[in-house]
Amino acid sequence: MTMKGTAERIIEAALQLISEKGYTAATTKTIAELAGVNEVTLFRHFGNKRGLLKAIIEQFSYYPLLQQEINQNMTWELEKDLLNISLKHFQFLMSIKDFVMIAFKESIQFPEISEEIANMPLLIKKELIHYFEEMYQQGKVREVDFEAAALSLIALNFGHFMSRARLGTIVSDIPTEELLQTSVAIFSRGLVS
Amino acid sequence: MTMKGTAERIIEAALQLISEKGYTAATTKTIAELAGVNEVTLFRHFGNKRGLLKAIIEQFSYYPLLQQEINQNMTWELEKDLLNISLKHFQFLMSIKDFVMIAFKESIQFPEISEEIANMPLLIKKELIHYFEEMYQQGKVREVDFEAAALSLIALNFGHFMSRARLGTIVSDIPTEELLQTSVAIFSRGLVS
DNA sequence: CTTTCATGCAAGTAATCACTTACATCCTAG
DNA sequence: CTAGGATGTAAGTGATTACTTGCATGAAAG
Question: B46: domain range?
Answer without folding.
Answer: 2-60
